[in-house]
Amino acid sequence: MTYEDSNNYHPILLVCAIAVSIVMLWPQVAMAHIESGEAGGFLSGLSHPVSGLDHIIAMVAVGLWGAQLGMPAIWVLPVAFPMMMAFGGLLGLIGMPLPGVEVGIALSAVVLGALVLGEVRVSLALSVAIVAFFALFHGHAHGTELQEGQNAMLYSLGFVTSTGLLHASGIVIGLLHRWPSGRIVLRGAGALVVLGGLYFLWQALS
Prior knowledge:
Layout: H1 3-31, H2 39-47, H3 53-69, H4 73-93, H5 101-117, H6 124-144, H7 152-174, H8 180-205
């Protein structure tokens, strides 16, 4: 490896280090400013999206795809997803049924992973519609699993915050798209998300 080649890897290593730091720091950030008696609902909501790999890979994929698309999608998609997810969570909290939630969550990973794998470029309106549609299923799943006695508003704030952090992780990793080798890494990540989604889809349909 030449000196020039090694320099090309420095930005990639920096991006990976930042992504790891975000993941390691978010529990400490979440604990800040939570008063006694409120932590249960907030922390429960905060931990829910990261308790299932199906949620994690889909939400990170939103950030990856946004980074591939560039401005303004890089910030619009991570805003649109939590907003629609909060609406889906409300539907779950009030007991309104949504057919095929687990299938929808699995399909979100398949579709979003495929979009990252193929570096697919669509209009901003269509990209927002895609992530918003799948966000409903993720939100509904969170909403229906609120434990008795917990604060619904804090619980919702928790899972929206956690989702935003997962999107942010995807965006930071997605900055690898700036370099040719990084683009290959991202497409590989998209392929892994697709495989994970297919596995969860198989489980949901079994």
